[in-house]
Amino acid sequence: EVNNRDIDQQKKLGFSYEPGDLIGKAGIESQWEKYLRGRDGVRFVIVNAHGHMANTAQDSAEADVLSFSKDDVPPEAGHNLTLTLDSDLQKSAWDAMEGIMGATVALDTRTGEVLVMVSKPSYDATSLNLTDDDIWQGLFKNPYGPLRNKAIQDHFSPGSTFKVFTALAALENNIITKDTILTCPPVIRFGRRPYHEHNQSGFGKIAVTEAIQRSSNVFLWQLAMKLDVNQIADVASSFGMGQLTGIDLPLETPGLMPTREWKLKTHNKEWYPGETLSIAIGQGSTLTTPLQLALAYSAIANGGLVFQPYVVSKITDVQENLIKEFKPKLLSKRESVAKYLEPVRKGLWKVINERGGTAYWTGRLDEVEIAGKSGTVQVRSSDPSDLFKKCPTKPFDRRHHAWFVGFAPYDKPEIVVATFALHGCGGSTAAAPVVKAVVKKWWEKKKEIERLQGPQPASAR
Questions:
Q1: What share of the chain is helix, strand, coil (3-state, %, to 5)?
Q2: How far apart are CA 31 and CA 27, in angstroms?
Q3: Contact, 353 vs 407, CB < 8 A?
Q4: In this predicted structure, which of 2-6, 401-405, 406-410, 432-436 has the lowest mean pLDDT?
Q5: How many of the other CB atoms lie within 10 Å of CB of 163?
Q6: What is the four-CA torsion angle of 224, 400, 415, 94, rounded to 10 degrees?
Q7: Mean pLDDT, the chain, as a whole number?
């Protein structure tokens, strides 16, 4: 039900609401309120002195004399929204996230359609109609934000999922080629500080594809020593990182892609080279939403095309007449970066499909090849003695956040899925199985549709 604030806000927008009217409070129902609401009807009736409807000939005659009778105004039903969400994929993501707090987003890489959007912890929407103050207090006081859509409203450091953008910046700026070999020991030093590889033995001599496959920190740090943070930001921003996606939902958070200018304006301080090393592996000030990361990887999958994501495909009236239809909207394509995607994409394939990849044991499917990247985000800095302690042994709020983002099929990508697991410890263990479950369900549906429809002519594919 509307409150006084709703009534005042809608009045400023040119809409009239009265106490007792209902209104969309969040998400799709809030964003598309003007289409969903419809219009109240009006029925003019004659009442007597006691406030009762006139029902006698005498009352009716008096009403005619006094000209109280007017034409009724019929009500208009609200319109229907058809969503891009796939209920089967949505359920597969929901089930796969059992026991996980975070979010999962899936997009069609060819259009920007949102196929899945799950946020946990969630709440029973019907309970919001109740007046039980305990329900509201429980939702408001929950430290993990069940009322917030973590897919678009909360942002987090992307961790190692960001390494692909640092690699692309190095390729575009001729810091390396796809064949450049760098030696990656267990520890390197920058200034007086040691920087530790996540593998205690290091990775030896590897090229960029193997660096992505094994998620080498040292390889990316060596690139960062030769790159300016603005070069990394330039590439990442061209894939949609650190900015609003423009999705047709309210309260989206833009994330953050830091630059020299940003730090000077925000903190009145110059950028330090050591900060670039943190940015290079997705730590530091870099922030992203699950939707934003899914969109960026969609562009990696499709050759550099950044589509505006959307959840409403069409609006129809109650007779199913088309009121409005939404089509894919291309936001950008950066040709200079797109030509360097091949070694990066190959590295993402190796992450899952070749031994030594960080998600070889948890993300692989026999039915279809997935390419992707895991990410593990430290929530607080650790001293070297704490670096290799097992994450699950730590208190929950000190455990690493976990990411995984993947697309399929590898050769002709159609779907990208990003999962964030709050304090999930490892991207390959906590988040990759969720992505795998969604892709598996998508593949099963795709094959069943092809079976039912039979062979399609080449022009229809």
A1: 40, 20, 45
A2: 6
A3: no
A4: 2-6
A5: 26
A6: -170
A7: 90
Q: Are 48 and 54 spatial neighbours (Cβ–Cβ below 8 Å)?
A: yes
83 by Cβ neighbours in 10 Å (0-12 / 13-18 / 19+) ranks as middle
Short-list 225, 218, 217, 236, CA closest to 166: 236
Tokens of 339: 């030509």
DSSP for 20-75 reads: T-----SHHHHHTHHHHS-B--B----B-TTSPBP-SHHHHHHHHHHT-----B--
- The closest of 365, 372, 432, 380 to 402, measured between CA atoms, is 432
235-274 as b/e, with b when 16 or more CB fall inside 10 Å?
bbbbbbbbeebbbbbeebbebbbbbeebbeeeeeeebeee
> Residue 444 carries which side chain, given as an amino acid letter?
E
Closest CA to 159 of 292, 299, 284: 284
Distances (CA, A) of 23 to 179, 249, 271, 358, 395: 58, 16, 47, 47, 42
208, two tokens: 């960029």
- 107 phi, psi to nearest 5 deg: -125, 150
The confidence score (pLDDT) of residue 348 equals 98
Q: What is the pLDDT of residues 338-397, one digit of tens each?
A: 889 999 999 999 999 999 999 999 999 999 999 999 999 988 765 555 656 788 888 888
Q: How much is the pTM?
A: 0.90
The answer to whether residues 102 and 435 touch, using CB atoms and an 8 Å cutoff, is no
Digit-coded pLDDT (tens) for 203-241: 999 999 999 999 999 999 999 999 999 999 999 999 999
Contact by Cβ (8 Å): 281, 159:
yes
User: On the CB side of 48, how many CA atoms lie within 13 Å of its CA?
Assistant: 11
Q: What are phi and psi of 77, to 5 degrees?
A: -70, 150
CA distance 301 to 284: 26
Q: What is the pLDDT of residues 46-65, one digit of tens each?
A: 887 877 877 555 555 554 54
What is the rounded distance in angstroms from the CA atom of residue 324 to the CA atom of residue 6? 26
